[in-house]
Amino acid sequence: MSQVQHRILLVDDEPNLRKVLGALLKQLGFEVHAENDGAAALARVRAAPPGTFDVVITDLRMPNLDGMGLLKALQVHEPGLPVILLTAHGSIDSAVEAVKLGAFDYLEKPFDKDQIHQIVQKAITTRERSGPSVQPSPPPGEIADPCAAAGMVGRSPSMQTIREIVATVAASPSTVLIAGESGTGKELVARALHLGSARRSQPFIKVNCAAIPGGLVESELFGHERGAFTGAVSSRAGRFELADGGTLFLDEVSEIPKEIQVKLLRAIQESEFERVGGVKTLHVNVRLIAATNRNLEELIRDGQFREDLYYRLNVVPIHLPALRERLEDLPFLVSHFVQRCNERLGKTVQGLTPAALAALERYPWPGNIRELENLMERMVLFASGPLIDEDDLPDAYAGEAGASAPAAAESSTRLTDPGDRQIRLPLSSLGQDLKEAVKAGSRLVEEALIREALAKTDGNVTRSARALGISRRSLQSKMKELGLRESPDDGGPKGPPPQPAS
User: Residue 281 contacts by C-beta under 8 Å, 6 or more apart in sequence?
Assistant: First the structure.
């Protein structure tokens, strides 16, 4: 049973099928909404906010708007929404063609409960982890800048180098291995390589290897024949077949079980394989791109990854830098995501203030570009004005990562506590000193540090917070606790309020 009530939009012109399949999906824990044709389903998706439905299951043949037409319309309106086609045995070729054009998968009638659950859950998991598994291909014709067309943003030297590599190798059939931390944009590079090749009008099919249960990886990649294993109620084409003539992107390739790696090696080298449970050898013309966020050489030493497969994948290596290693691209990425969120959310945010952007440049970005994109969506969604300021950022992003405030250039200063005792501490380590003071429960030192930071920055709370390594909001809270007050013009702290005469 699903732990979360994911919403399924079921589209079929046969009332009995809607009733039976809808009841089955509800038993599996899904929330089901049904429509009797593609036109009604498209109207329902358009009327709902993006992300309302997690999966669309649609019959291939329907009046008004058939399954193929609905698929194409949804790719324009909500590209990340997985579409699963329902088909009779005689329409398998049409369903396979639909998958090549962007459908997530297909289900052949009559249905098997386990197979339905597996495919629907896989669609949901794939979307949650990294978006659609198959991306629609653009029309034929040379693309001047495939990196820009794929959505890659950045002008840093490292990104310029990657653009040059893409321009050089995109047209070749060579296998590419993209390495980099999670969230650095490996799929965008794979997409750029596809768009820059002569295969751009052919399928670009993506497989998130980490989202597939280990026992199903072989079937997912190479397909299976009917009766090959329990639940194989019909023959199915694998991702290699669906990518024939185009590009196959194996994301998180390190997660492929070692016993399947030898078959993958053969498929890459010989361009041939057999379906699970089959005897017929199938030949395909596929350009393979793989990606990993793990060190494959270490996995080889640990016996978890085949060395011969590694060398076959690593023909053209591309390493994507972490966001913290290309901070000069941060303003361009922020602008790109703000604009995109404005279009999607119907907002008119102009961007970030210099202070907010400076705060983001100090943040280490463990989640890389994906984390930045999610943050920008949150900020745009809740923005009440044209600009997002440092105070609007969550505390984790507004804090100071190092002592970069203007006053930090001085090597030391004299701090005076309320009891007139002198404490000499290096101003360049204000943030660390404050952490230690808080940890030790030293209220006198904590107050002295805050007073000194405010004095050295002429009472500027924002700059003082940076020097102390905390957010402006946190500093204001500490000032309130310690009885320090901001002046109305932010000109400096005031002392404790006068005590009434006894």
Answer: 272, 273, 274
**Greater model confidence, 452 or 33:** 33
Token pair recorded at residue 57: 């299951």
Q: How far apart are CA 407 and CA 425, in angstroms?
A: 13
What residues contact residue 144 under an 8 Å CB cut-off, 6+ apart?
Answer: none
The one-character DSSP state at 391 is G
Residue ranges of alpha helices (H) inside 78-215 are: 92-101, 113-130, 146-149, 157-169, 186-195
Bridge partners of 249? 206, 289
Q: Does domain 137-321 have CATH number 3.40.50.300?
A: yes
Backbone Cα Rg of the chain: 28
DSSP letters of 297-322?
HHHHHTTSS-HHHHHHHTTEEEEPPP
The whole-model pTM stands at: 0.63
What is the CB-side half-sphere exposure of residue 421 using CA atoms within 13 A? 6
The span from the CA of 466 to the CA of 404, in Å, is 7
Instruction: Judge whether 81 and 44 are in contact, CB under 8 Å.
Output: no
C-alpha to C-alpha distance for 373 and 185, rounded to whole angstroms: 11
The set of residues, in sequence order, having a beta carbon less than 8 Å from that of 337 and lying 6+ positions away, is 372, 373, 376, 377
From the list 328, 367, 324, 333, the residue with the least C-alpha distance to 352 is 333
The mean pLDDT value of the chain amounts to 82
Terminal Cα distance for the chain, rounded: 69
- Residues 455 and 282: their CA atoms lie apart, in Å, by 76
CA 288 to centroid of chain Cα atoms: 22
> Over the stretch 364-407, which tens digit does the pLDDT of each residue have?
999 999 999 999 999 999 998 899 998 899 988 886 543 333 33
Q: Which option is the CATH number for 1-131: 3.55.10.10, 3.40.50.1100, 1.10.10.60, 3.40.50.2300?
A: 3.40.50.2300
